[in-house]
Amino acid sequence: MVQVSKTDGHYKFEIQGSHKLWSLKSEITIPAEHIVRAYKNEDQSKSFLGLRMPGVNIPGIITAGSFMVNEGTIFCDFTGKENLVVVELKDEKYKQLVIEVENVEQTLNLFQ
Q1: Confidence band (pLDDT; 50, 70, 90) for 44?
Q2: pLDDT score, position 53
Q3: In what side-by-side order are the strands of the sheet with 84-89?
Q4: How far apart are CA 92 and CA 89, in angstroms?
Q5: Were 111 and a residue from 38, 57, 90, 98 both cysteine, which residue would form a disulfide, CB within 3.0 to 4.6 Å?
Q6: Residue range 42-50: average pLDDT?
Q7: What pTM was estimated for this model as a whole?
Q8: How far is CA 80 from the centre of its chain?
Q9: Are 64 and 22 in contact (CB under 8 A)?
Q10: Residue 18 above 60 pLDDT?
């Protein structure tokens, strides 16, 4: 699970608990102007996302880490199909963040 906050024109995506171990990250910080859009999307939880680099993908259990896909590199951290938020980025290492959050609506309100 990921906790999202906004301070001083930056969004901080804090990876929670043991997911830090699986994703090999504890947080990602993105300037607000690099956020293209954020939306709820359940279609991102496919069993094969792309080339894993580094991270873990055990379909139906956990997907966490960096993945190379046709569009570029994405970061994922989710355990199920519920409460997924996709954050599209520009001018960043990652093209997208596909993250599981506690409250989708509350998280999406941060991006308005």
Answers
A1: low
A2: 77
A3: 35-40, 84-89, 96-100, 72-78, 62-69, 51-58
A4: 6
A5: 38
A6: 59
A7: 0.91
A8: 13
A9: yes
A10: yes
d(CA 42, CA 37): 16
For residues 25 and 13, the answer to whether their CB atoms sit within 8 Å is no
Q: Is the pLDDT of residue 49 over 70?
A: no
Q: Domain residue spans in the chain?
A: 2-109
CA 11 to chain centre: 12
DSSP character string of the chain: -EEEEEETTEEEEEEPTTHHHHHT-SEEEEEGGGEEEEEE-STT--S--SEEEEEEEETTTEEEEEEEETTEEEEEEESSSTTEEEEEESSSS-SEEEEE-S-HHHHHHTT-
- Nearest Cα to 58, choosing from 22, 11, 14? 22
